[in-house]
Each structure stands twice: as structure tokens, then as C-alpha cells.
Specification:
Radius of gyration: 38 Å
Strand content: 15-25%
Number of strands: 23
Largest sheet: 7 strands, mixed
Mean pLDDT: 82
Shape: elongated
Distance between the termini: 59 Å
Helix content: 25-40%
Number of helices: 22
Length: 674
């Protein structure tokens, strides 16, 4: 495979490289980090700390995948995650088995693996990462037991969380060990100078933030709140979102960084602030760029505060990846939520493989634990022949992204083999220079491009990133419960008009004008009122009424008099008044009858006279027996009749009869100017 776009080996290994941790000061810093984290890394339970899923091969890959949550109170691995975490483990094994059976990729090479549980914790992930270093001394060697000899891993798949990947990337960078993450999305990891051996098969958060902005623009929301985790994942996303929101005239009312150490009172105070914003400023949209355990606490606090169907939540992949597990027990609070998660398809063959697994036929140490925990068997000892068929679903857990990471290593190794060993490729494991400090494999990774099993084309940018592709889901209520339903997709070609592909049900009050709930700081001003914007907050304003003779201009920011002598002729002064919408001035002077068309004027005059004569004649004939009429001469009566007719016509032609009409028009809606 061509390496024209790859970085030269010497550029990554030379002492002149600008990577900061090549300096002695950087190494001392990392050692201090490792020493500080060491007690915590090994504080979790003994029954999990040495557990790994291992199979030796001629070339080995490491794996960092979370299977448990972390219990901060006991500083140990806590509850099991959902079956999706087990799927990711087996997806790595499945992809390696597929590659080993494919003679077109790395012929005569058997890829092995060593998969370890990060327990959703940065310190645990860092401790487990030490097992992949060539200088690591296994525990058995320290106790005097027979020391196992294993080949070092040539690369690591994982970790999942950005904070875990960041610490692992620093450690692996010191040893030139390539890393391909399947779900770490922090933009901080895009810095190739700081993390030169880190790559990923999922888009960075800057793309996810763009997707969220497009959702907000789609529904014309202007005022939102942003909650993020206190780690590289959340802080980086907050910076990206704040900058992009300002570019799109979106205001952020509340920004709050949540720590893992926050207690129930902290979450209650936060919810009280959010509900206060919702009541006073109509701000209903809240971005949650947090992890699973944090969002559970947020929704629990919302339930305690009786916040059912009052807010619209937009969730990141940090908790959106877990689907219904994230909102379990708090469905009424979370209903209507949107989540933005990386796009990944399911692989039917893998699903069949996964559901047929049994502890009797698998060396996976976590398989019986999951089977027992999710009810497939009564105790772990009784699970030998139990399967996952009854408890699994077809929903994706991003397991195919794990497969993409494995295949990236396989194709990079194959390209490296062709370059170093020549054609035909027969035994890469023998001829490849894969010493732990070679650092050469990452160059081939960056130049790798291949078709995923189900996720389309995978190719890396110069900094190890890939483009972002996301699925947008909405939590909806059905007769049989609550489910996340796909309502849109996002990629570089999507706009705010097309990001949501279907109508979604709303569970809070909807604005008639937009057909969606509103999320604003201030409601629009009434006609004839101008906006007085609050300093440093362009989305919040007070409405001030203009004078009756003033219109509203400059994007409803100023009042302008219709009697301004600079713009109104003298003859019109006093006759100019606003239209119904107070957007333009109109001349209310009466319009006199137009006699330029002589024929029409004469015809009108004759017609009116005829009508008057006819009506008067009929009246005279009807009352001809009246004494007054009898005593009056016909000549006098005719003179009076003609005089009355002429006077009435003249009055109608000269009287300002249109004044009433004009004054009335002031209160009728007229077409406004631009």
C-alpha cells in the first residue's frame, strides 16, 4: 500500500521531534502521573484486577474495553454495564478470527489478543495499560512463581472513554505503541503533536457539536443550557460548543461542569437552577455532554424535583451510547430527549455468533458473569451451556467500530509486511521489525484506507482522525414502554434543514408558529414595541412601547417617528401614522375625487342627479295630498329640488369623505416594507 502521505519513521523517532514528552522534563511529569495514579490503579478488587481475556498469537493486540462501572465510594469496579460492553469484547475476538481465517490478509500470521477491563475509570484504564508495555513485569514474576513469557503487543484497541484514552496515549507514546480507539471523541486527542501514536475510527467531538448545533437551528431554539463532565471529554466539548453557538447567534444561559464527586444536593441545586430558567426565561433545551453515571444522577434529581415533561434534553454519545439503560427509572423525565451517537451498523453474522456463545466453548472470563447477571442462568457455575440468545437484541452497541479498529491494525500490518518483506507475503511475523520502540506501525496506520465490514469507507486524516457520522435518536413513549427511535442522521453534507428527517412527538407545550417547543430567553415583542437588549446577552431583552406615531426599525431595536421632518414633506406632516404592524408610515390624508376622466365624472354626475330626481319625484308623488305641497307652486318645488340635488353632489365631490376611510385604514393590516 502506498505510503506517500505517511510520516517518515525518523520524523517520529528523532530527538528533534516537537512532541513535548520526548524531553526529560516531560518524562518526569509522566512518571509523576503514573506514581500518583498507581495506588488507585490497583485499588480495585482482586477478583477483577488480574482478569483478562487472552489468546497468544504470532502478533498480539491489546484491548481496553469497559465492562463495569466504577464505584467511587469503594474505589473498585462496581456494577456490570449492559450487554453492549460484552459485545465489544467479543467483536474484537470475532474480527481477529475473521482476519486469521482470511488468507488475503497477513498470510501465515496468527493475531492474538489480550483484552482488559477499564471499569469506566481513568485510573483503572491507566493501570491496565501498564500490562501492554514491554517493560512490564507480570505479578507472577515478582512472587517467584514460573514467569510466563509472552510476546509484547504491537498495538492497542481502545479505550472507550476519552479521559482513559488520553492517559493511555501519553503512556503508550513514551513507548511508541500505536493506539486505535473506537469511541474516544474528545477534540483534545486530535493534537498529533501531543498524541502522535493515537488514532481513532470515530469522529471527534467537533463534528458531534456541529450536529447538535444543527438540531438547535432546525427547531429555531435560541437559548440553551450546557452541562458537561469535568474531564477532557466534557471540557473540550464545552469550548467547541460555546464558540460554534456564538457563530450561529445561539446563547448559552447556563454552563455547568459536573464532577464525579458531586452529591445528590449538588444535582438538586443544578436542577433547581435549570427549572428556574425554564419558568422565568422559557429556556427548555439542555445539552448533556456527560457520562452514563452522571446522567443517571441528573435524571434522578429531575424526578425528585418533579420536572417531568418540562425540559428537552440533547445528549452526547457519552450516555446516548447506552440507550434505554441511561434513562431507566426516570423515563417520564427523559421522554422527548434527543441523543447524538456515532453511526455504526449491525452485522447479522456477528449477532448470530454472539448469541450462540457458551462458557463451555469460550474462554471469555466475563461471559458467565453476564449470563448470570442478566438472568440466563441462576449462578455462574450453572452457565456452562447457557447462551445469550434470550437476552440479546439487534440494537447496535458500536461493536462494529471495534471491528474497524482491529481491521485498521490488520491492514496496516499487511502494508508494513509488503513494504519490508516484499512480495509474495508469506510470513510477516518473522520478517517484520515490530520491536516495541520501532514506532513505525503508526505511519502505516495513518496511510491505511479500507472498506469496513458494514460502516463504509475508513480512512485517516493526518492527525489520526476520521470524519464524523452520527445517528440522531429521540426517546418516545409507546404502549409497551419507552424506546429510542432514529429520527435523523448527520454528516458533512447535512444542513440544519435536513438533520431531522421526520416529525417527532412533543411532550411539552408547543409553539403554534413553529410547531415545536420554544427555548428562548425573551419572547418576541408586540407590534409597536422595541427591544432593549440586556448588555452582554443578545438573546435577552425588555420590550419598551413606542409612541403612537412611531414605527419600529433596525431589527426591532429602535423607534422612529413618522413625523420626522427630514423624511416627511411639510404638507404630509401630521397625516403620517404607522400601519397595523408598526413597520412603516402611511399617509392618512383624504383622497379627493379625481375628475381627470371627464366622461366618468359626467356619467357619475348625471347618474347621481337622476337618482335624486327619481327618489324626490316618487316622494313628491306619494305625498301630493299634503297641504304644504298643495299650496306650493310647482316652479318653487322644482327649484328647491334642483338646488338640493346640486348641493348634495357638490358636497360629495368636495367633502373629505375619505377621512373616515383613511382613519379606518390605519387600523387595518397593510403590506409591510422589507
Amino acid at each position: 500500500m502506498s505510503l506517500q502521505n505517511s510520516l517518515h519513521k525518523d520524523e517520529r523517532s528523532t530527538p528533534n521531534n516537537i512532541w513535548p514528552f520526548r524531553s526529560s522534563c516531560g518524562i518526569i511529569t509522566i512518571l509523576l502521573v503514573l506514581l500518583a495514579a498507581a495506588p488507585l490503579c490497583h485499588s480495585y478488587d482482586d477478583h477483577t484486577s488480574d482478569v483478562s481475556y487472552t489468546r497468544e498469537g504470532s502478533i498480539n493486540l491489546g484491548g481496553l474495553i469497559p465492562l463495569h462501572l466504577y464505584d467511587s465510594s469503594s474505589q473498585s469496579c462496581g456494577d456490570l454495564l449492559d450487554l453492549g460492553s460484552l459485545k465489544k469484547v467479543e467483536a474484537m475476538v470475532y474480527a481477529i478470527d475473521q482476519i486469521n481465517s482470511d488468507s488475503a490478509i497477513l498470510p501465515n500470521v496468527t493475531i492474538g489478543f489480550e483484552i482488559r477491563d477499564t471499569c469506566s475509570n481513568t485510573a483503572v484504564a491507566l493501570g491496565e495499560s501498564l500490562n501492554f508495555l514491554p517493560s512490564h513485569i507480570p505479578e507472577a514474576c515478582r512472587t517467584g512463581e514460573p514467569c510466563p513469557v509472552k510476546k509484547p503487543v504491537v498495538g492497542v484497541v481502545g479505550a472507550q472513554r476519552s479521559s482513559s484514552s488520553k492517559q493511555a496515549a501519553i503512556l503508550f507514546g513514551l513507548h511508541h505503541l500505536p493506539q486505535v480507539s473506537f469511541l474516544s471523541t474528545s477534540d483534545e486527542l486530535s493534537n498529533a503533536e501531543t498524541f502522535p501514536y493515537f488514532t481513532r475510527v470515530v469522529g471527534p467531538d467537533r463534528f458531534q457539536v456541529k450536529a447538535m448545533i444543527d438540531i438547535i437551528l432546525h427547531y429555531k431554539w435560541k437559548y440553551i443550557s450546557f452541562l458537561n463532565s469535568d474531564d477532557t471529554y466534557g471540557r473540550s466539548a464545552q469550548q467547541q460548543f460555546t464558540a460554534l453557538a456564538a457563530e450561529n447567534d445561539i446563547c448559552v444561559g447556563i454552563t455547568h461542569t459536573i464532577s464525579l464527586a458531586s452529591d445528590a444536593d449538588d444535582y438538586d441545586d443544578l436542577m433547581d437552577e435549570l427549572l428556574g430558567m425554564q419558568k422565568s426565561k422559557h429556556a427548555t433545551v439542555v445539552i448533556l455532554f456527560v457520562h452514563l453515571e452522571m446522567v443517571k444522577n441528573i435524571f434522578s434529581a429531575a424526578s425528585r424535583m418533579k420536572a417531568e415533561r418540562k425540559l428537552i434534553w440533547i445528549g452526547s454519545d457519552g450516555w446516548g451510547n447506552y440507550g434505554e439503560m441511561a434513562i431507566e427509572g426516570n423515563e417520564e423525565v427523559a421522554v422527548g430527549s434527543f441523543t447524538v451517537i456515532p453511526s455504526s451498523e449491525t452485522l447479522p453474522d456477528f449477532n448470530s455468533y454472539f448469541r450462540s456463545l457458551t462458557p463451555a466453548a469460550s474462554d471469555n472470563p466475563w461471559l458467565p458473569v453476564f449470563l448470570n447477571h442478566y438472568g440466563a442462568c441462576s449462578t455462574p457455575d450453572d452457565c456452562e451451556n447457557s447462551t445469550l440468545r434470550a437476552i440479546d437484541s439487534d440494537l447496535t452497541s458500536h461493536e462494529t467500530l471495534v471491528m474497524d479498529a482491529v481491521y485498521a491494525f490488520a491492514y496496516a500490518l499487511h502494508s508494513m509486511c509488503r513494504a519490508q518483506c516484499g512480495e509474495p507475503v508469506e510470513d510477516c511475523a518473522t520478517c517484520l521489525n515490530l520491536s516495541a520502540d520501532s514506532g513505525e506501525l503508526v505511519d502505516y496506520l495513518l496511510s491505511t484506507s479500507f472498506d469496513s465490514l458494514v460502516n463504509g469507507r475508513v480512512s485517516f486524516m493526518e492527525n489520526g482522525d476520521v470524519s464524523g457520522r452520527y445517528t440522531i435518536k429521540n426517546l418516545q413513549k409507546f404502549d409497551d414502554g419507552y424506546k429510542f427511535v432514529q429520527v435523523g442522521e448527520w454528516n458533512d453534507d447535512v444542513t440544519s434543514e435536513t438533520v431531522i428527517g421526520q416529525l417527532v412527538p412533543w411532550y411539552i407545550e408547543v409553539d403554534d408558529a413553529t410547531g415545536a417547543p420554544i427555548s428562548v430567553c425573551s419572547l418576541p415583542c408586540e407590534p409597536g414595541e422595541r427591544r432593549h437588549v440586556i448588555p452582554d446577552n443578545p438573546c435577552c431583552w425588555e420590550c419598551i412601547k413606542c409612541q403612537p406615531f412611531e414605527i419600529v426599525i433596525n431589527n426591532n431595536m429602535e423607534c422612529s417617528s413618522c413625523w420626522d421632518l427630514k423624511h416627511v414633506p411639510f404638507v404630509s406632516r401630521g397625516y403620517m401614522y404607522p400601519n397595523y404592524n408598526f413597520t412603516e408610515c402611511i399617509d392618512t390624508r383624504p383622497d379627493l375625487l379625481n375628475y381627470e376622466i371627464a366622461f366618468l365624472s359626467i356619467f357619475t354626475f348625471v347618474f347621481l342627479c337622476g337618482c335624486v330626481f327619481l327618489i324626490t319625484g316618487l316622494y313628491h308623488d306619494y305625498h301630493r295630498g299634503n297641504a304644504l305641497i298643495k299650496e306650493s307652486s310647482g316652479n318653487l318645488q322644482m327649484k328647491c329640488l334642483c338646488r338640493k340635488c346640486m348641493t348634495q353632489v357638490w358636497i360629495q365631490s368636495q367633502n373629505e369623505t375619505t377621512t373616515c376611510v383613511s382613519n379606518k385604514n390605519r387600523h387595518l393590516p397593510l403590506k409591510s416594507g422589507p
